[in-house]
Amino acid sequence: MLVIINGKIKTMEDRDYENGYVRIEQGRISAVGDMRECDRNLLKSRKDIQVIDAKGNLVMPGIIEAHCHMGITEEKKGMEGDDCNENVDPITPYLRAIDAINPMDAAFHDALQAGITSAMIGPGSANVVGGQFAFLKTHGRCIDRMIVKAPAAMKVAFGENPKVNYSGQGNSPATRMAIAAMLREELTKAKEYQKKRQSNPEEISDFRYECWLPVLKGEIPIKAHAHRADDILTAVRIAKEFGLRMTIDHCSEGHLIMEELKAAGFSAIVGPDMASRNKIEVKNMAFKTAGLLSQNGILTAITTDHPVSMIQFLPICAGLAVKVGMDMEEGLKAITINAARICNVADRVGSLVVGKDADIAIFDGNPMEVFTRNLCTIVDGKIVYYDEQSQML
Q1: b/e per residue, 114-126, with b = 16+ CB within 10 A?
Q2: Which contacts (CB < 8 Å, 24+ apart) does range 178-182 have?
Q3: Which of 184, 229, 302, 356 is the most exposed place for a label (fewest CB within 10 A)?
């Protein structure tokens, strides 16, 4: 058993505790409450209990990265460690991120040091359909043991990236029309396969289209790379046509079409606003977007899109969004509970609630402020990073 005491508990749900405790058993949260409710005699009498004295520091859910390429585009490896885009075929839904993510990538350690305990990781945006994302814990050496949800989403991409990649090869798609048409064609074939599968489930099985069934059943969303307003609206149009769940990833011009986005009802993962505006489609990228979307009732998370900007700067990206207008509480939610809800894992992570995974970070201040230090990171009830200077143990 692990018990955190004397912490400023930020649950990211309805109630916080100025001086509270969190009890952890078998990797899950078993109690959260005020220190006045904590059984101190139990802590003293049982030798199997490890106690962390938070000493008034902030105790909150582990931070969540809702969209990145950590471990699939490795640092320090160049071409040999870049498995992000199978950029020789524009339609590759059957690719699985879990077969290419290397948890030995240095970014995983950086994430833990920053209090980031889980991440949505998958293929890039060179293809119209890039493959299947997975939601993982950031601690571990074996991907199969780190998985929270896989597949967790199907990556699709609109705009410049597929255009640039394939027009340079003399192949389709060379235009936005072709991107949309190729995605519609693929989804139409997938729906036809679904009908055949339903009528004859024993005999029909096609690896090429089997991967679409969780999408068509509404079990996982399409994860739409879209920066420009017209690309965002094309993604909305296609998702509505085929009755699909969807997250809009990047959503750089989302603030220009907020009324349409709110009516559409899809969530947004905004960023990487810390990166340069190195493409035409990101010319209106700005930290204000996340706050404006949030203020208009759109469920919003914030992303670094690592390695486009570095994973450890995720809480700072949220802070910069707050600096230009996002509500402070919404800034924290954008990297915790809202990110969990968007990634469909809020039953496991994103808030300090009894029964959820014990993924916790302890900070000496607000993590969205640049001078704040992460003192301790806990994943599945185990201390995986600890700042010795904090003297909490």
Answers
A1: bbbbbbbbbbbbb
A2: 179/128, 180/234, 180/238, 182/90, 182/91, 182/128
A3: 184
Are 118 and 319 in contact, with CB atoms under 8 Å apart?
A: no
What is the pTM assigned to this prediction? 0.97
Describe the crossing of helices 288-295 and 314-323 by its angle, rounded to 10 degrees: 70
Q: Is 44 a residue whose pLDDT tops 90?
A: no
Q: Which two tokens stand for residue 57?
A: 């520091």
Give the whole-angstrom CA distance, residue 231 versus residue 253. Answer: 9
| CA 159/CA 280 separation, integer angstroms | 10
Count Cα atoms within 13 angstroms, Cβ side, for 350.
24
Mean pLDDT of 356-371: 98
Cα–Cα nearest to 35, from 5, 58, 66: 5
The pLDDT score that the predictor gives to residue 75 is: 87
Whether 226 and 159 have beta carbons less than 8 Å apart is answered as: yes
Q: Which residue has the tokens 């979307």?
A: 293
The dihedrals phi and psi of 80, each to the nearest 5 degrees, come to -65, -30
Provide φ and ψ at 22, rounded to 5°.
Answer: -135, 125
- In the structure, what pLDDT confidence band is assigned to residue 327 with cuts at 50, 70 and 90? very high
Do residues 238 and 187 lie in contact, with contact meaning Cβ atoms separated by under 8 Å? yes
C-alpha span between 313 and 389 (Å, rounded): 22
pLDDT tens digit string along 212-224?
999 999 999 999 9
Please, which residues bridge with residue 61 across strands? 360
Band of pLDDT at residue 76, cut at 50, 70 and 90: confident
Torsion of the alpha carbons at 212, 216, 217 and 221, rounded to the nearest 10: 80
